[in-house]
């Protein structure tokens, strides 16, 4: 037996052992799901999506016990099939109706689902796209205007109202409304300003941060160059994020392990206002706090999430440790200021409560993680690519993994609500 064959056999054994562990963990998770969640809906897409974002609108149906939400997703095909920017409708129980564990569907591992297996998550619109979509985000002030990160490096803008719900099978050519130029390599960072309509930031593997003001686009314009290009990282820029409370500040994190803070009022686009050696490995994701302009989260390949205060960047406020692989996404809870979530290549989405930092723990509790770890979502069997908090249903999250699966879930209220008086009596035994 040759040396290459021995190496191959060892690799195959490792892969088989890993798959067996993943299957066993999933079975345990599925068995415990009725006690951990108020809602859990699992949907297999035709192709995986690397991006997900809830739209801010929700449709309530008179006389029905569910409401319809919308989800922005993409595709990542094998290369031989067409890629699409997609908008899905998601039926969820109305917020004023509590879930009941008796509604748990054991076969599908679903709880709180409404309208039948095929009606819960349905693709409503498909827009042809050039290559896979690394990330897609809608403009907060005009939600029909959607920006996408392409594999070519271009950022594409789509006004979804200008496209049919289903593409013409005789013309599958991608025709973005506008092509935003400036990058020469692909990336993932994409951030609209919630304070300045039309201001869009993008980061990529070329080490650049491009800034466009798409508000000035004319009807006949199909290409736009950057309003400004920022250069401060020595390698790929993993993510970029606007400050949600200050219209001139944004942050970027890169493979150079540095966190940079930028001020658009500065005359120099090559010198950030602050630079921090933040992590011991590449930075993949960032998110500014919803209400406090000084607070910022960073996630890294060093498996940690770090909390920073812009008023004193010389030292981090706290390091959150529980992931066992690269942290790929972080996001603050839109309604609860002390809670955020993080996603990782370890197949987990973790929910954190910053008020519990330093809280005392019994030995058996410490085995489950630090006191600030509120919840661990273990429903995915592959790397989690992205997740998003639902803006209309507090504590509802959509998470997308690289194995085509999108899950919409809400942890049991008894986990995050410390006041049992607020929990329906029929749920207490």
From TrEMBL:
Domain Histone-binding protein RBBP4-like N-terminal: 24-93
BP terms from Gene Ontology: chromatin organization
UniProt-annotated location(s): Nucleus
GO cellular component terms listed in the entry, alphabetical order: nucleus
The keyword Ligase appears for this protein: no
Pfam family, one: CAF1C_H4-bd
InterPro entries xref list: Histone-bd_RBBP4-like_N, WD40/YVTN_repeat-like_dom_sf, WD40_PAC1, WD40_repeat_CS, WD40_repeat_dom_sf, WD40_rpt, WD_repeat_RBAP46/RBAP48/MSI1
Keywords, comma-separated and alphabetical: Chromatin regulator, Nucleus, Repeat, WD repeat
Record SUPFAM superfamilies: WD40 repeat-like (SSF50978)
Stretches forming WD repeats: 230-272, 276-312, 320-353, 377-411
PANTHER family: WD40 REPEAT FAMILY (PTHR22850)
Name assigned to this protein: Histone-binding protein RBBP4-like N-terminal domain-containing protein
